[in-house]
Each structure stands twice: as structure tokens, then as C-alpha cells.
Amino acid sequence: MLKSAHTDLNYLTSHIAQAIRSAEAFEEPFYHLVLDGIFPADVYAEMQELMPSAGHFRALAGRGNVNIRNDGSSTRVKVDLFPEYLRHLEGRRKTLWNLVGAALCSDVVRDAFVERLGPGLKRRFGSAYKPTDFFPIPMLTRDTSGYRIAEHTDTHWKGITVQLYLPRDESLNGVGTVFSSRGADGKFTRVKQMDFIPNHGYAFAVGDNTWHSVDPTGELPMSRDSILHTYFVDQTAFQKARNRGKRVGNFLKNEFRQLGGG
After folding, report:
1. Rounded distance, CA 15 to CA 17, Å?
2. Beta strand 58-59 with 76-80: parallel, antiparallel or unpaired?
3. Domain spans of the chain, in order of start
4. Chain centre distance of CA 201
5. Measured in whole angstroms, how far is the alpha carbon of residue 30 from the centre of its chain?
6. By 3-state DSSP, what share of the chain in percent is helix, strand and coil, each rounded to 5?
7. pTM for this structure?
8. Are 221 and 171 a contacting pair, CB within 8 Å?
9. 103-135 per-position pLDDT tens digit
């Protein structure tokens, strides 16, 4: 059982930050961290027990509606891990996911990612960045049968991409994210695939060489659950307004859906 919210937040942020600092770093095909044991075992077990129900997720269409099936349903759905979205949850479920969202949005966790991803951040920004230049957006995502995403490097609005896998066991291993390099001829070479196993994940600073993809999943026996935690570049006044405006806009869309409007 979770303890007091204040104590647990310190406990959880400290654990996540330590997992980031102790993560193994790799140079190929681009600088990235492989994260393991991100959440304490007791918290991870509660996350499995208290997953939001299907009705709390809403479609994440993706760029160009890439996730939308012919029947209008989405292969990827999400729950934003902010208090204004999570207020529709109840009891222990609401307490837990608010705690997870607060920990991921903490300065302690952000600073750990910025510190460890320094080589990738310097490649893109030079020395002209600081921890406060990154705005966190954590989303609980659920991928279902037919999900896939082709090789891409992420939009320039993003500064850091983190994905934390949340399976119950290792039975879906083989559907993890693929990291690739791109040759001068434009062809991709697969370099490594992340293990889709419990409490595991990766992080990288977004750049023009951070090619990654997910193979077509086909029919899945269970959903591919993860937290997609993105730090958006937050350096200029325009970027700051855009990031906060998107958060408000997504909140309004979610409220409209909760009222039965879509």
C-alpha cells in the first residue's frame, strides 16, 4: 500500500532519479540510456493493479492520423498524467497515478535526465541549454492490435523522449522500439531493439539522427502499455506559450469527451 502522498513523492522521485543516474548509456546508433527498475517494485505492482479502465483512455491519432483505423478507432490511446485529467479517476487509482505523474514532472527527475543525456543535448543545442528549458508531458499510452510507426526522429518541438514499458510479464517481448541508423542512400539499418519487459525503458535527446520505429504489431494477445514521457523544448516565449496552451487544449478535449461529446 502507498504511504502518505508527500512521503511517497519523495520516495518515488528519488528512486526514479537514481535509476536514471545508474542507467547504462550507449553511443550507437545515437546516444541513449537503457533504463531498468525505473519504479520501485511496490509502486510498479500497484500500477499494474490500478491501471485506468478503457473508458478513461482517449485516442492519440498521431501525425497524419497514422494511428486511426478504417473504422475510426485508434491503435494508440492515452491518459495524460496531469491532475486535471486524472480527476475523473477514483480512490487509490487516482492517488497512484497522480503520484506517478507528479514524480515524472518533478525537477529532480528532469534534472537527472538532462544531466545524463548531456552528450545528445549538446549535439543539438551546443551549450545553450539548461534544465528549465524542458517542459514535461507524461502520458500513459496503450497500443493495441495493428499499431506501428515507421522510422522517424520525432518533431523538433521535442527535446527529450522517454518511454517506460509497463507489461505484466515478458510475454510480449519482441514488440519493443527499434533504433536504426540511416545511410547516405537513405536506407535504414536496424541496430538494436529494446526489450519490452517489466519496468524497463529508454531515453534519448531528440536529434536529426535519432531514428526509431515500432514494427507492425499484428494481433496482440494483450495491450502494449507504456508511459511516453516527453520533454518539450521550452526556451523561447513562443515555445512556453505553445507548451502550456497544448496542455490546456488537451484538457478541454478530454473534458468534452468525458461529457459524451466524442
Report:
1. 6
2. antiparallel
3. 5-258
4. 9
5. 18
6. 35, 25, 40
7. 0.90
8. yes
9. 999 999 999 999 999 999 999 999 989 999 999
- Homologous superfamily (CATH) for 5-258: q2cbj1_9rhob like domain (2.60.120.620)
Residue 155 one-letter amino acid: T
Terminal CA-to-CA distance of the chain, rounded, Å?
35
Residues of 87-105 as b/e, b for ≥16 C-beta within 10 angstroms? eebeeebbbbbbbbbbbbb
Grid cell 514532472 — which residue? 105
| pLDDT tens, residue by residue, 60-118 | 766 666 666 777 677 788 999 999 889 889 999 999 999 999 999 999 999 999 999 99
Burial class (CB in 10 A: 0-12, 13-18, 19+), 47: buried
Which residue type, as a one-letter code, is found at position 63? R
Residues in the chain: 262
